[in-house]
Amino acid sequence: xxWLRNILDKVEPVFKEGGKLxxxxxxxxxxxxxxxxxxxxxxxxxxxxxxxxxxxxMILVVVALxxxxxxxxxxxxFQIANALGETLSWKENxxxxxxxxxxxxxxxxxxxxxxxxxFSIVRKHPVSEGFLVTCALIPLVMPVTVPLWQVAIxxxxxxxxxxxxxGGVGMNIFNPALVARAFLFFTYPARISGDKVWVAGPDxxxxxxxxxxxxxxxxxxxxxxxxxxxQFDYSWMNMFMGWVPGSIGETSTLWCAVGALFLVITGLGxxxxxxxxxxxxxxxxxxxxxxxxxTGSTNTMLTLPAHYHLVMGGFAFGVAxxxxxxxxxxxxxxxxxxxxxxxxxxxxxxxxxxxAYPEGTMLAILLMNAFSPLIDYFVIQGNIKRRMxxxxx
Length: 393
Prior knowledge:
- This protein has helices spanning 2-15, 25-35, 54-84, 90-123, 130-140, 148-160, 176-187, 212-215, 222-227, 236-241, 253-265, 271-295, 306-311, 315-323, 333-353, 361-392.
- The chain is mainly alpha-helical.
- It has two domains: 14-36 and 51-191, no CATH class; 269-392, no CATH class.
- Helix 3 packs parallel to helix 5 (130-140), helix 5 packs parallel to helix 7 and helix 14 crosses helix 16 (361-392).
- The longest helix has 34 residues, at 90-123.
- The chain starts with a helix and ends with a helix.
């Protein structure tokens, strides 16, 4: 790689101050830091007190997402074959699913790179590797049938409105990938809801997601209703494995858990947020089950037990990769417990009470993003009061 280092060193003066391409220095700097480690100190946030830099942190997050991408391609291929009444090998399913995913990934990274480079050039600051994670997350929360132009628009909205207007990486208050998904859902709901968007089958083929099945019925038991579905296997184990319709990377709780474990082991994700979210979801699900029983409610979603909530929709993916995102989440240890518990509890509340939106994880995380600074504030103030009392004694 010495020859490449020599080339970059040779053209560097052209991009530095006073050079002909001075305005394009962020592009040169991004290329240089992607290919080689840098010895420069960080001049602005975010800061990490560790032996690795921001680039390595972002790459590790992308690595944690790889299992979700691979399984997502397999599941998409499987769902296509199932819609056509065919039985294909796992290699054929992987190839078919990969062909559906690749254009979405390409458009996401093209749109994200454009805005990241544009803002870097205008503001004259280095390109942040944070956009790699954002652009890696966005395709995984999209249905496979989403139009590419809508991918470009929602990615642009997530990058610009969700991050850049706040100052870039480390300054945003909402998770940009979730902002992109929320924009797509509320702007083009027909492309991210209903029963015709989750499987890339033949024209007119439809199939409701697991959460949509009990949400559409009244006065029935949710588990019995799911087990009665013949079009898909909505048993608990099959939903845990992920062989069901859904967003590209959200269906498999198993592989989301593998990614979450990787983030926790590497210190990039907080186990307190994850455990807190599971506890919050479990507690609220028990409460809704109890209320449904004693009140005789006809709301089928209220009868959905906690262990089904855990494997349905985007809860596992959202908690593993969105809620643990360090910029928009709580930063104190106690605050992370509160932050996670509320995400889990709000997920069940939104799923059960709002019939128009059976998937509640996205809104729960975005809502708690807004409250995370307040949570940390009260935790810190509580610590200050306790220290003042000890000092007075």
